[in-house]
Design goal:
The protein is 67% helix and 0% strand. By secondary structure, the chain is mostly helical.
């Protein structure tokens, strides 16, 4: 199979607006990868990022993009004209020198957040078991034990999330998108410049950028507090093609940014996963024991028990997809290293 021949099997319609170019602009090469990625990103707009199904869709889009990248890399050898392009060699070197490691770090950081939530839900279930005594009120000793455990659980959750927010700003995985934006690379990753990048370069850049943005959005959705700097707003795109995938990616990024910042002084991120929002709200109500009656406390315990079950199910689904993305990122990296090791 020739390099990138997989794309010839893709039956994708090209939006009419892709043919709109600025006057006098040179005609860019619209690659099959551009068609694929643009179509994937269009389905993600607008982004209701608090919805677990949307987050799964975003992860699936990133995984599918990694699959295409892996297929193109597998069909590339040292002797291929595709590889011999100077731009392709540079893209491979850049990807291996730091890009793929940063993405793997980002996936690990998301998995760490998921683990925190797993432990949080597990502790909450112990508290709920102590408080849920059927129609009878728990004994004062049991109630006090449950309340102390609830406070300790919330303190641990808050401390670990705060540590994560501080750490991800300094780690390369979460700062990678900021670096890309500051160098204005994202503004040039669309098909308008793929003559300079080469097909393989565009595929590696596109798969990397989409994974970076999706991991950041997912990290924001799994945060218990709002962070005004969780996403880095991309540089303004001068659209030679009005619907290039790079512009669609920035549009997605900017809309999530606006959603997260739409309420001044909001302690809880509006972009937080909806079931996590519900769980945190019920936990807050349960902690305010003096402000609710015994009947309402029983209702809150029952509601929180249901919410914890739903949150646990949603987190498991997201965790599986993040691990799948991680495996595909490793596969792409190993395939590229395999190219370089060829005699």
């Amino acid at each position: 199979m020739k390099p990138l021949s997989i794309f010839r099997t893709l039956s994708m319609g090209v939006p009419a607006r892709l043919s709109a170019f600025s006057a006098g602009a040179p005609l860019p090469i619209i690659t099959p990868f551009h068609h694929h990625l643009t179509a994937e990103l269009v389905t993600l707009l607008p982004p209701p990022v608090s919805d677990q199904h949307w987050l799964c869709h975003a992860l699936d889009a990133s995984i599918n993009t990694q699959k295409i990248a892996l297929e193109s890399v597998k069909n590339t050898t040292i002797g291929d004209a595709l590889y011999r392009q100077e731009s392709s060699q540079k893209s491979i070197e850049e990807y291996l020198d730091g890009g793929s490691i940063k993405l793997l770090d980002s996936c690990n950081e998301v998995l760490e957040k998921i683990q925190v939530i797993h432990e949080f839900v597990k502790s909450l279930k112990v508290v709920l078991h102590l408080l849920h005594q059927g129609k009878c009120e728990p004994s004062p000793i049991t109630s006090a034990r449950a309340r102390n455990m609830l406070e300790e659980t919330c303190d641990v959750m808050e401390r670990r999330m705060n540590e994560d927010m501080k750490n991800h700003k300094s780690r390369s995985g979460w700062s990678s998108l900021k670096k890309l934006s500051s160098r204005k690379k994202l503004a040039h990753y669309g098909s308008a410049n793929n003559q300079e990048m080469g097909e393989l370069g565009e595929i590696l850049k596109g798969s990397k950028d989409v994974a970076s943005v999706v991991c950041q959005i997912l990290g924001l959705a799994l945060s218990s507090k709002s962070s005004k700097h969780s996403l880095i707003t991309s540089q303004y795109c001068k659209p030679i093609i009005t619907s290039s995938w790079s512009c669609s990616l920035r549009k997605l990024q900017n809309q999530v940014e606006r959603e997260n910042n739409h309420q001044e002084g909001e302690k809880r991120s509006p972009a937080m996963l909806s079931e996590l929002q519900q769980t945190m709200a019920l936990v807050g109500e349960l902690r305010r024991k003096n402000h609710i009656g015994a009947a309402r406390q029983r209702e809150t315990v029952e509601e929180l028990d249901r919410s914890c079950g739903k949150l646990e199910d949603e987190i498991r689904i997201l965790e599986k997809r993040v691990r799948d993305l991680y495996r595909h990122l490793v596969s792409v990296r190993m395939a590229l290293l395999g190219i370089l090791s060829q005699p």
